[in-house]
Write a structure and sequence with these properties.
By secondary structure, the chain is of the alpha+beta class. The protein has helices at 64-76, 98-113, 120-135, 143-148, 184-189, 197-215, 219-225, 232-235, 242-251, 273-286; strands spanning 2-7, 9-11, 20-26, 33-40, 45-49, 82-87, 151-154, 162-165, 172-177, 256-259, 266-270, 294-300, 306-307. It has 2 domains: 2-165, Ribosomal Protein S5, domain 2 (2-Layer Sandwich), CATH 3.30.230; 172-300, GHMP kinase, C-terminal domain (Alpha-Beta Plaits, 2-Layer Sandwich), CATH 3.30.70. 48% of the residues are buried. The structure holds L-homoserine. The site of L-homoserine has 15 residues, from helix 5. ATP binds at residues 91-101.
């Protein structure tokens, strides 16, 4: 029996739509991600538990774990029945890479049980494919960080899909999920099909600035570079009072604030724990829409998917 954990992630990281993703882990030691326990079995079996398992489809053929298993069997041309326990600790449609967590943990667990027929690149490609079917189009900015950990830069290269880039060790990432659902597919549909040259150039400059600042460890420049011209102008209206919350969080001292993935989670950054706690409290009192919502102060999770238990 194997138990695998995959961490939550912040897609886009503000400035890198479909290009940057960061894996995160709460500083209080909580697990913010999904777990898969797997063993060989007579026939395929799937059990769900965890705080958000009530959001999973009843028909197990619609469950991500089943999709992963059936795809994996097709790819390796082998059918090994397994029994899977999915611990759904992340809310679905939260903007924290919830589906990616399930995909990454499940495919890594299945690969282990099948004696590792796929290498890491083949596994990542498969993760992107499954994630693409769920969210409407292939993007790696949640699966790659959840798999490798750290801050990932998604490339447009036939050989290398994603690379780890340096992050700022003293940055605290405050994530606030308001307790409401937003489908990634819907949040992608509302984006324009085309952007003007002006926006493309600006976006490239800010993203290049962020990458440069990361490599040269210029924290202020990196934080100032985290501007989103691609998604935030269109998605902000889907989030509760996004701009007002962003303004207040910045007033409290956040060096950056943006939408996590496709939302409705927002993230804020501070390198000072006292400020991070103030931001966290403010978001708890103002951004959460119901009792299921949560706020966590996180570090970058540098380990990515791992065996636990
Ligand atoms: N890059 C993706 C998007 C992330 O913004 O649609 C989804 O979590």
């Amino acid at each position: 029996m194997i138990k695998i954990y995959a961490p939550a992630s912040i897609g886009n990281v503000g400035v890198g739509f479909d290009i940057l993703g960061a894996a995160i882990t709460p500083i209080n030691g909580d697990l913010l991600g999904d777990c898969i326990t797997i063993k060989r079995s007579e026939k395929f079996q799937l059990f769900n538990k965890g705080a958000f398992s009530n959001q999973l489809p009843e028909n197990h053929k619609q469950n991500i774990a089943w999709k992963c298993w059936s795809k994996f069997c097709n790819v390796v041309k082998k059918n090994i029945p397994v029994s899977i326990l999915l611990e759904k600790n992340l809310p679905i449609g939260s903007g924290l890479g919830s589906s990616a967590c399930s995909v990454v943990a499940t495919l890594v667990a299945i690969n282990e049980i099948f004696n590792s027929p796929l290498n890491s690149k083949e596994l990542l490609l498969l993760m992107g494919e499954v994630e693409g079917e769920i969210s409407g189009s292939i993007h790696y900015d949640n699966v790659a960080p959840s798999y490798f950990g750290g801050l990932q830069l998604i490339l447009e290269d036939t050989h290398i899909i994603s690379q780890t880039i340096p992050n700022f060790k003293n940055w605290l990432w405050i994530v606030a999920w308001p307790g409401i659902k937003l489908s990634t597919a819907e949040a992608r549909k509302i984006l324009p099909k085309k952007y003007t040259k002006d926006v493309c150039v600006k976006n490239s400059r800010y993203l290049a600035g962020f990458i440069h600042a990361s490599y040269t460890q210029q924290s202020d420049l990196a934080a100032r570079s985290m501007k989103d011209f691609i998604a935030e102008p269109y998605r902000s209206k889907l989030l509760p009072n996004f701009f007002e919350n962003k303004k207040q969080v910045k007033k409290l001292g956040a060096i950056s604030c943006g939408i996590s993935g496709s939302g409705p989670t927002i993230f804020a950054i501070s390198d000072n724990i006292k400020i991070a706690k103030k931001i966290s409290l403010w978001l708890e009192q103002n951004y959460l829409q119901n009792k299921t919502g949560f706020v966590y102060i996180c570090y970058i999770d540098t380990k990515g998917v791992r065996k636990i238990g």
